[in-house]
Specification:
Regulatory protein YycH domain-containing protein, YycH/YycI_2, single chain, alpha+beta, YycH, TATA-Binding Protein, 25 strands
Amino acid sequence: MKERMKTVLLVVLVLGSLLQSYVLIFRFPGSDSVVQSKDSYIRTEEMGPEEKPENLLFPDKMVIHLGEDKHTVFYSNDTFYNLVYNRLKGRTFDNFQRRMVSNIDWTKVRSENRGIELSFDSGIPVTLLQRVMQIVPDTLFEGESINKIWLYSVEGEAKVHVMFFSTEGDVVYEAAQADLTVQDVDQLVDFGLSWPSYKMVDGRYYIPEKELNMVSVELPIGEYTVEQMQRSLFFDPSITRNIREKDGSEIYTDSKRSLQVDQGQKWISYTDPAAPPSGESSPGKDVLSAIDFVNQHGGWNGTYRLGKAGESEDRTLVKFQQYYGGFPILNTPGFQYGVMELDLQQGTVTSYERSLLYLESAPLKKQMVKLTGGEALETKLKPYAEDNSIASLDPAYLPVRTEEDLLLKPVWAVELQNGTVITLE
């Protein structure tokens, strides 16, 4: 009896093994997924690595106020930038109180008090900021987008003021509870004592009092093929047809979606106007959807930062800015590069633009150069400063295409109030 039971058990095990082998060999593609939403993005050919949202959310610069109207600036590749930002990310901010910007004399705060400003240029939704900083949920505050965080101490006061500036421009939120002491802020500010000195101009931008050192670098470049992009963006690339435009660009379409390729600029524009809406959305959710889309449709060919997430009517424009060595790579009309731009409607990507080119890792040439500073820089800025048209001034890289490589030239990027960017070498 016992031997018969062993025989039956052995037969069952053998049959089970054969059945499992049959399923593994002959299963249909995609059968691992039990349920898949028609709106979910399909993983396609991997060209670049995926990226976590947290790695795309960081300030474009840090301004350190040393008191006595002295200042310096840390950029994202600076050692002290990373040290200060990592320490602030571990602190908790709670109990937000809404105030009017006009109720505080910020010129006085900037010149007289020691503190730290984190700049997020076009703004970052609070729901995303909560992914990198310990911000306690607050219904009043969570719907905002923040373009600046300012921490400062006032002589004679025991508390640290932590201010979150809304992109609306007239509102600031103070975290009444923050586990930071005056000594903590002083210690972080002290990192800027040996750094180059900067001067505030018209309450809007900073210029170094001496020349600024940057590295000019030449890098090899690779290029994604049109076939790779088709496989990445179309559900069935075999049914796409090619249309050649008079301007030399090409359009690939499956009658629903289209992929326009500018071979001269090596730039693609993908549109999916019939993309089904996925429901309610917000700038924060749309940014996460955009990141997911890039992860699944091409990946990230370098270091990127969330540069913009703005709503317009029923759509959200999300822009990711490429960085090299702590500085942004400019996108210019003459050479489109350095950004990824996506349009979303109700959380679904309807437009996606990016370059086909990508930087290889090892630089071919490096050279230390000096960007103009001090009075010489002020003289160059004078034509734009006279009518208060300068919105910001930052060091950046201007990409210059050679036959086989890409030269990144250090420049001053002058952004005007109307959004135009002018470069000063």
